[in-house]
Automatic annotation (TrEMBL):
Record region (Disordered): 412-442
Bias-annotated ranges (Polar residues): 414-429
Domain of life: Eukaryota
UniProt organism field: Astyanax mexicanus
SUPFAM superfamilies in the record: DNA/RNA polymerases (SSF56672)
Reverse transcriptase domain span: 162-413
Pfam families per record: RVT_1
Protein's UniProt name: Reverse transcriptase domain-containing protein
Alphabetical list of PROSITE patterns matching this protein: RT_POL (PS50878)
Length: 442
C-alpha cells in the first residue's frame, strides 16, 4: 500500500515511508530466518542428523526425473494450440471479424500512424530501470548490459529507432526459450499435460517493447480506449483492485437484501490462441494505421520457440497464432483483443471485472425473481458464441458458478429449479454453492 501511494503521489515523504517499511520488513524476515535455523540446529544432538540437515539445506532435492524430452514437451505445447485453433473456421477478416471490430471502441478522425523516435537519454532510462531478467538468448547477462549501457547506448538507440521508423520488428527478437513448469507440485511429473510453458525473451526485445508500450498506452489513454474493467497489467491496478471491485459489489447487494450469482470464466491457452488477423483488424479500428500497424504485423508474425528441458533444447517450432507470453506488449494486446466481450456481458444486465484472461461476471437480483436461470443461460450462450467468433476456448472444467443468497424469509427457498442440470446452482433461490458450469451446453 505504501509503494502504491508513493507511485501515485511521487512525494518524497511517501518514498521515505515506503523505504522504512521495506527495511523493517526485510529485518523481520532476517530475524525470523535466524531464529528458525537456530532452533532447528540447537535441537539436534546427533551429529549424523545434524549433517543430514545441513546436506538437505545446502543441496535441495533435484527435480523429479521423467522420461519426457524437450521435443515431446514442445510438440505437446504446439499440438494443444493447434487442436484449439482447428476447431474454428479458418477465416481472415470475414464478416464475423468486422462485427467484432464494430463492437470495439473506435476513434473518429484520430489516427496513430507513426512512432516517435527515442533520444539516447530515454533509451538509457528504459534500459536501466527495467528488471534485469536474463534469457539464454541474451549474449551477456542483463545486469552487465545495464552496467555498460552508457557506452553502448548510441547503438541500442539506433536499433530501436530503426525498428520504430521502418515498422519492422527485428527477426532476432522473435525467438523464445520455453521452460516447462509443473502447474502444481502435487501433480504427476510424468504427464505432459501437467506442465505449463513459461517463455523467456531477449532483454533488448523487451526494451523495444517497452518503448512501444509507452506510446501505444498514451494514445489509448488519451482517446479513452483502455479497457475500464481490466485490472491486469494496468498501472494502479492489481489483483487487489479486481477482488475489491467484485466483493464490494456483492456485499452491497446482500446488504440491500438481494441475492447474487457470480460466474468465473476460465480460458484454455488464451494468450496462445489469439488470431492475428482479428487482432490487427481491431487495432486498425481503434485508430492504428500505416507504420504503427505494420510494426504490429511484423511483431506478431514469424515467431518461434524452443523448449529447454533438463539440459536439452528442442528444435524450433513456429507460432502462427497468439501473443507472446512473458512479453511486455502481450497483456495489453490481449486486453484489446477481448475488450468487446464486455458489451456482450452488459447486454444481459451483468456486471463484470477482468484480470488478464480471467473474467468474473456477476448479477444481483431479488430472491423472488424467477427469471434468473434463463438470463444466465442466455448470457452464457452469447459468451460462448463470442468465444468461438474470437477463436478462444472456454475451459469448462474450471469455469465455475457461485450463488450468494440474500437473507430470505422462511419458506422462500427452493421454489424453482434450474433448467440445466449441468448448472444446478443457477437457480435464483438455491442455497449458496459452487459447481462447474458448461456454457456450451446452453
Amino acid at each position: 500500500a505504501a509503494e502504491r501511494k508513493w507511485h501515485k503521489n511521487q512525494k518524497q515523504a511517501d518514498l521515505k515511508n515506503y523505504q522504512l517499511l521495506l527495511a523493517s520488513f526485510s529485518a523481520s524476515i532476517t530475524t525470523a530466518k535466524a531464529e528458525f535455523y537456530h532452533n532447528k540446529f540447537s535441537s539436534l544432538t546427533d551429529s549424523r542428523k545434524l549433517f543430514a540437515t545441513f546436506k538437505s539445506l545446502l543441496n535441495p532435492p533435484p527435480p523429479p526425473t521423467t522420461c519426457l524430452t524437450a521435443e515431446t514437451l514442445a510438440s505437446f505445447f504446439t499440438g494443444k494450440v493447434a487442436a484449439i485453433s482447428n476447431q474454428f473456421t479458418d477465416v481472415t477478416c470475414s464478416s464475423s471479424t468486422t462485427c467484432s471490430a464494430a463492437r470495439c471502441p473506435s476513434t473518429e478522425g484520430v489516427a496513430f500512424s507513426s512512432f516517435t523516435s527515442l533520444t539516447e537519454n530515454e533509451t538509457l532510462a528504459l534500459l536501466t530501470r527495467s528488471r534485469p531478467t536474463t534469457c539464454p538468448l541474451d549474449p551477456i547477462p542483463s545486469n552487465l548490459l545495464q552496467t555498460i549501457a552508457p557506452a553502448i547506448i548510441p547503438a541500442i538507440t539506433h536499433t530501436i529507432n530503426a525498428s520504430l521508423t521502418s515498422g519492422v520488428f527485428p527477426t532476432a527478437f522473435k525467438q523464445a526459450h520455453v521452460t516447462p513448469l509443473l502447474k502444481k507440485p502435487s501433480l504427476n511429473p510424468a504427464q505432459v499435460d501437467n506442465y505449463r510453458p513459461v517463455s523467456l525473451l531477449p532483454f533488448l526485445s523487451k526494451t523495444l517493447e517497452r518503448a512501444v508500450l509507452n506510446q501505444v498506452s498514451g494514445f489509448l489513454s488519451q482517446n479513452d480506449l483502455l479497457h475500464q474493467n481490466q485490472s491486469g497489467f494496468k498501472k494502479g491496478h492489481s489483483t487487489e483492485t479486481a477482488l475489491l471491485s467484485v466483493t464490494e459489489a456483492l456485499k452491497t447487494a446482500r446488504a440491500a437484501g438481494q441475492s447474487s450469482v457470480l460466474i468465473l470464466l476460465d480460458l484454455s491457452a488464451a494468450f496462445d490462441t489469439v488470431n492475428h488477423d482479428f487482432l490487427l483488424t481491431i487495432l486498425s479500428n481503434m485508430g492504428t494505421s500505416d507504420n504503427v500497424l505494420s510494426w504490429f504485423r511484423s511483431y506478431l508474425t514469424g515467431r518461434s520457440f524452443k523448449v529447454l528441458w533438463q539440459g536439452q533444447l528442442s528444435s524450433a517450432h513456429s507460432l502462427s497464432t497468439g501473443v507472446p507470453q512473458g512479453s511486455v506488449l502481450g497483456p495489453l494486446l490481449f486486453s484489446i483483443y477481448t475488450a468487446s466481450l464486455g458489451q456482450v456481458i452488459h447486454s444481459h444486465g451483468f456486471s463484470y471485472h477482468c484480470f488478464a484472461d480471467d473474467t468474473q461476471l456477476y448479477l444481483s437480483f431479488s430472491p423472488e425473481d424467477h427469471s434468473i436461470s434463463a438470463r444466465i443461460s442466455q448470457c452464457l450462450s452469447d459468451i460462448s458464441s463470442w468465444m468461438k467468433e474470437h477463436h478462444l476456448q472456454l475451459n469448462l472444467s474450471k469455469t465455475e458458478l457461485l450463488v450468494i443468497p440474500a437473507n430470505w424469509p422462511p419458506g422462500l427457498r427452493s421454489k424453482t429449479t434450474p433448467n440445466d442440470p449441468e448448472c444446478s446452482s443457477t437457480s435464483g433461490l438455491q442455497p449458496a454453492k459452487t459447481g462447474s458450469c458448461h456454457p456450451a451446453a446452453h
